[in-house]
Amino acid sequence: MNICAIIELVEKILHLGKKLAKAYARRYPRHNVSVPVDYSVDEKGFRGTAKTLSGGGLFLTSIDGLEAGKEILLRFRPARHLPFIRATAKVLYVLPEKGAGLEFTEITPEDRNSLLRLIHQKNRDRRLNPRAPLATQEQCDQCMSLAFSRDISLGGMFIETADLLPVGSALTVRFNLDQRDKIVTASAQVTYQIEKMGMGVLFTEIGHEDCDSIRQYLESLPAPPATVPAKGKTA
């Protein structure tokens, strides 16, 4: 179910008008990978492979020693040109014969920033056709500026700007989709930053028509080419 359908369902049940449930949108972007991960549970070591990676956690193919709610220590290298990352994570869920979803509970800001920078670059590189930048006006209580975005979804967008707002800041974004006449307006909240690149925002309030405009825009974009990880590479 996409965000627009969720909005409609929430409105019908709760009569909240344009309010959007933030829990249905991802806070961080993610990328499919094949990264070896060393992890320890109660001082016992294991090795698995991360299949998806985000700024907030990863999906691990191994379930050895894992159970929901358990805290574990991780060590992995997201790409050959990056140093190893050490983090603490909580097991959110375990799927028998499939893997486990992990959420970072302790990770340095530098390591999270490194992950987000890598994921944004990888996601951008795999596009069939680069997206034209969307001119985006961002407005908050004490600021108003013009920025650009090439990454947008039904749940939010990544704004390319050097003027970063603190995580948690509320703002209003206005942008035009693919040279169309309609201006899309949404209330948003900053969920993460990437130094010298920009910030990710989550839509917290958006109208049906604006949500439909985003959906139609996304459906009009060419699908990214299928990628097969090269043997021996970690990202």
What value does the average pLDDT take? 80
Q: Tally the structural domains.
A: 2
CATH topology of the largest domain: Thrombin, subunit H
Give the full name of the CATH homologous superfamily of the largest domain: predicted glycosyltransferase like domains
The topology string of helices and strands comes to HEEEEEEHEEEEEEH
| C-alpha end-to-end distance | 29 Å
Number of strand segments: 12
How much helix is in the residues? 10-25%
Largest sheet entry: 6 strands, antiparallel, barrel
CATH-derived architecture of the largest domain: Beta Barrel
What's the arrangement of strands in the largest beta sheet?
Answer: 1-2-3-6-5-4
**CATH class category of the largest domain:** Mainly Beta
Percentage beta strand: 35-45%
Oligomeric organization of the protein chains: single chain
Strand-pairing-aware structural class: alpha+beta
Question: What is the compact description of this entry?
Answer:
This protein is an alpha+beta fold. It contains three helices and twelve strands, in the order H-E-E-E-E-E-E-H-E-E-E-E-E-E-H. It folds into two domains: 30-125, Thrombin, subunit H, CATH 2.40.10.220; 128-220, Beta Barrel (Thrombin, subunit H), CATH 2.40.10.220.
3D structure, described in words:
This protein has 235 residues and is an alpha+beta fold. It folds into two domains: 96 residues, Beta Barrel (Thrombin, subunit H); 93 residues, predicted glycosyltransferase like domains (Thrombin, subunit H). Helix content is 18%, strand content 43%. It is built from three helices and twelve strands. A six-stranded antiparallel beta barrel has the order 1-2-3-6-5-4. A six-stranded antiparallel β-barrel has the order 7-8-9-12-11-10. β10 and β11 form a beta hairpin. α1 runs antiparallel to α3. The two termini are 29 Å apart. The C terminus is likely disordered.
